[in-house]
Amino acid sequence: MTVTSELPPAVSPEREATLLASVPTGLLIDGEWVEASDGGTFDVLDPATGEVLLTVASATSDDAVASLDAADAAQASWARTAPRVRAEILRRAFDLVTERAEDFALLMTLEMGKPLAEARGEVAYGAEFLRWFSEESVRHYGRYLTTPEGKNKILVQHKPVGPCLLITPWNFPLAMATRKVAPAVAAGCTMVLKPAKLTPLTAQYFAQTMLDAGLPAGVLNVVASASASGISGPLLKDSRLRKISFTGSTPVGKRLMADAAQNVLRTSMELGGNAPFIVFEDADLDKAVVGAMTAKMRNMGEACTAANRFLVHESVAQEFTRKFAAAMGALTTGRGTEPSTQVGPLIDSGARDDVHTLVSAAVDAGAVAIIGGAPVDGPGYFYQPTVLASVPKDAAILGREIFGPVAPITTFTTEQEAIRFANNTEYGLASYLYSKDFNRLLRVAEQIEFGMVGFNAGVISNAAAPFGGVKQSGLGREGGSEGIAEYTTTQYIGINDPYSP
Predict the structure, then answer these.
(1) Predicted confidence (pLDDT) per residue in 408-443, tens digit
(2) Of 158, 183, 434, 442, which shows the fewest CB atoms inside 10 Å?
């Protein structure tokens, strides 16, 4: 008997329309979905077709201030709310996101472009921050101890930092929201969430899910807007705001940090990356190729953790390149709702043009396109999965965050040469090392300047681990026990010796 495996059917237009009709299109201020104060709107497009998905309210500066009014009014009572109550809300939110997983996945596919299978993975990853911080909310410990000379006592407690501005990017519409909202809720902070203009729908659907989970009015406010500065500008000048958490490009992060300095805000910045993927001569090449595919092609390469520079030992470069190119060439490009799709579109035409400019410049400088190297004809913003070999070490593509399905490969001879080249960047977020020698992996990890290192692993982000970088990749950490600390201030209370007369 012959067994055949059939792909599931494509998502129907009726299913898409029903889901889109359920997404709030207003601004969430003090527990209510409202129109923008001036009635302004903007369109959200499907990057696979260029067609309008929904039209949503575009917040003004007045709306931004109104959202902070609500957050400030709710802060005192929310800070006094028992940690267990906050934990239960987060746990209910985890359950609801899990129950609505197919809706969240399809919504992300529609507005961001990633294939449905990958979107489902983001739902599981994003939901885990809700569960993790539901557990952390009741385990954020203080200290009580005796001073070294034994004459007094020290009491240390962690208090909510206060109202926060959370700015999320377009590439992970759910996970970037949960990674910021969950620890803020757990710590007892209120929030103004500003989702990316390109992908606000998932954040708004998530905000409604938080309300459904029992989050009180005013704790989470959402102000999507066509003008990012129209939201951040007035809020960063307002003394009631006490923290900003931003994920996005380094240039924008620098401007926000400068503005945040005026009120000395607590600042968390998860910025750009230029991740090296180093393959040593003793690496298992088949495993390295599998890792390279996940590190490069997650989210079509539109991730700050994406492998950006493939540094391969000269003795294995030819074999690795051949196997890697074969794997990349086997991928199917298409709209993410199609069951056979493995590579969706880039987010917009500008992103596709930027990627092609980098590829063209690299080829002009002497790189060889083993596969790909051009946009895909037709509607949408698709780019061919691309592998570039013999890339000159001074090529611009090795110094820029590519944010697309392009893998430039260059070679090295010695371990120290690989380390020097890996560190030759202003960024320091993620990095990936492949070798069978564990001592080498530890040795290299201690010398490379990156906040996260993967040992023989192409995906390393996890809710239980601290996510963040060094140098111009930002400051602060999200996830892990460190994640909740970003939303608290430390208060020390000196206590007179209770045994003194």
Answers:
(1) 999 999 999 999 999 999 999 999 999 999 999 999
(2) 442
As a whole number of angstroms, the distance between CA 482 and CA 49 comes to 40
Q: Does the annotation count 304 as an active-site position? A: yes
Asked whether residue 5 carries a pLDDT value surpassing 60, the answer given is: no
Nearest Cα neighbor of 273 from 102, 465, 427 is: 427
Instruction: Go through 135-162 and write b for each residue having 16 or more CB atoms within 10 A of its CB, e for each that does not.
Output: ebbeebeeeeeeeeeeeebeeeebebbb
Query: Count of CB atoms within 10 A of residue 318's CB?
Result: 12
Query: Could you give the CA distance from residue 170 to residue 199 in angstroms, rounded to a whole number?
Result: 5
Helix (H) or strand (E) holding 175: helix 175-187
Catalytic choice (270, 302, 401, 478): 270
In degrees and rounded to multiples of 5, residue 409 shows phi and psi of: -115, 130
Q: What is the C-alpha end-to-end distance of the chain, expressed in Å?
A: 91
Distance CA 491, CA 488 (A): 10
What average pLDDT does this structure show over 84-104? 98
Q: Which residues contact 216 (CB under 8 A, 6 or more apart)?
A: 31, 74, 77, 78, 81
Residue 343 DSSP one-character state: B
Point out which residues pair with 454 in neighbouring strands: 432
For the record, the structure tokens of 86 come out as: 């906050």
Statement: the pTM of the whole predicted model exceeds 0.90: yes
Q: Which amino acid is at 334?
A: G
Alpha carbon 440 to its chain's center:
30
Q: Are 244 and 265 in contact (CB under 8 A)?
A: yes
Known active-site residue 99: no
Total count of residues recorded for the chain:
501
Query: At which residue do the structure tokens 């939201």 appear?
Result: 231
From residue 329, how far is each of 171, 385, 407 by CA, in Å?
23, 7, 12
Of 111, 164, 189, 304, which is the active-site residue?
304
Phi, psi (deg, nearest 5) at residue 67? -70, -35
CA-to-CA distance for 424 and 311, rounded, in angstroms?
12
pLDDT of the residue at 74: 98
Asked whether 352 and 346 are in contact (CB, 8 A), the reply is yes
299-357: pLDDT as tens digits: 999 999 999 999 999 999 999 999 999 999 999 999 999 999 999 999 999 999 999 99
**Tell me, what's the pLDDT at 498?**
87
Token code pair at residue 135: 């557990």
Q: What is the C-alpha to C-alpha distance for residues 93 and 103, in angstroms, rounded to an integer?
A: 15
Q: Is residue 190 helix, strand or coil?
A: coil
DSSP labels, 74-110: HHHHHHHS-HHHHHHHHHHHHHHHHHTHHHHHHHHHH
Helices (H), 2-159: 13-21, 61-80, 83-99, 101-112, 116-136
Burial class (CB in 10 A: 0-12, 13-18, 19+), 370: buried
